[in-house]
Amino acid sequence: MRWQIRPAVPNNSFDYFEQTLMTDNGFREYDVRWLIGKEINPNGFVVLGQAYGTFLQEQFHESRVVVGHDFRSYSQELSRSLVVGLLSTGVHVIDIGLALTPMVYFAQHHFQSKAAAMVTASHNENGWTGLKLAEGLSSTLGPEGIQAFRKTVHGGKFKSGSGTYETRDDLFAAYLADVTAAGTLPRKLKVAIAAGNGTAGRFAPPVLARLGCELVELDCTPDWTFPHHNPNPEDIKFLHGISKTVRETGCDVGIGIDGDGDRLGVVDDKGREIYSDKMGLLVARWLCPKAPGRSVVTDVKSTSLFYDDPVLQKNNTQVVMWKTGHSYIKAKVAECGSAAGFEKSGHWFFGPPFGRGYDDGVLSATYVLRFLAESDRPLSSLVDALPQTWQSPTLGVYCADNIKYQVVEQVTQAYTRDRNEKTRIGKFAVRDLVTVNGVRFVLEDGSWGLVRASSNKPSLVVVAESRTSRDQMYDVMDHIQSRLAATGKVGEYDQQMPPR
Hints:
Elements: E1 32-35, H1 42-60, E2 64-69, H2 75-87, E3 92-98, H3 101-111, E4 115-119, E5 128-133, H4 143-155, E6 164-167, H5 171-179, E7 190-194, H6 200-210, E8 214-218, H7 236-249, E9 253-257, E10 264-267, E11 273-274, H8 276-287, E12 296-299, H9 310-314, E13 319-322, H10 326-336, E14 340-342, E15 348-350, H11 361-374, H12 379-384, E16 390-391, E17 395-398, H13 404-421, E18 424-425, E19 428-434, E20 439-443, E21 448-453, E22 459-466, H14 470-487
Parallel strand pairs: 2-3, 2-4, 3-6, 7-8, 7-9, 12-13, 12-14
Antiparallel strand pairs: 1-5, 4-5, 9-10, 10-11, 14-15, 16-22, 17-22, 18-19, 19-20, 20-21, 21-22
Helix pairs in contact: 1-2, 1-4, 3-5
């Protein structure tokens, strides 16, 4: 064995002569992520390259791999380390350099490579790094694939060879032509585009400009210190910044793209933040007549409005609830031959002929804009026409990786007792439980709350929606928070609920 995984130690050095550092907690459900210096170092990325080069040859008989990286201060160096490891296994590396994650997925199709590795920690705070790894076209490693890859890493028996290397700095031109192939919008829109100083600031504005939009750019200059907030469309601070810009500049819509470009957030013309599940429902309504009889997939965090929507029902559009996570929804869309898949986090997936099935925040933004441009009503009016519900932000609460699934199981058992005993939460008793991913308890009025383990951080995810009142939504959230506090195993929340 040529290297050894060891426990995490405080270490911020990028010294290539130091011992390889890679802790085991980085292998998560559908990504691999670590804290740089404390849990992994550049030598660890060399090992990851050796393992993935071996994995892609043995598991899906591929000899070429696309590599890209985001804009974080350390990502380029880690990408180089990864490439060193890949080349040592004899594969051919196509390095597209600074890129969005969906650009890497697009490059797989463009170059016909079943393998790809994107060095990114998505929207995670500075200090995080990781990989998104492909296992075919429009397919990324899910739980079984991640564990198989982990086994390859642990085994240390890597292929040896003399790989070849090329850089392709022309990829964005091909991507730009692809996502704007339908041409300019039927009417001009004024759009606030926000990137949170992340990688998307380099790539999203030219796409929307090609559509004919008048752009108001907000934090589109890449800055790896993220001086204002993390580039996360579920972060209230991020959305509030877009809202302020929309109101001050009179935009038709505000679009926010996350750190690696595979998610979006939307703000309407009145400056109201529209959660991506409700925005997804509007887009699904627009899309489903173009693909009658095909399903749409939603994640377990998404609004219940999908399930009794009259427009979807009229077009015989089945709604499939599935696990949260880009690899899960991506695979479910492919399995069901769905027209689209929507996650509340802003990961959207469009099946053929609308897309290639992978999550692309920039492509998703073009569909929001096409939908809006084809409508004769402002976005705020279209949103207000939906049945009213009251939704919480998606909250994260600290819970250690080694116990978070146990805590979710403990909470699931508690809500099972609540259902059996007809416990009232606010004004309504628990009617049903959905345990496809964590526990989503549904009340008699259709309100619901969710507790699930985060797949990429030491955290639990908490969401609630009421179909009755704002107070009922707060009652659900308060009940969840008291349940979690009673476990004695959770810490602070990453953001706070707005005042009741």
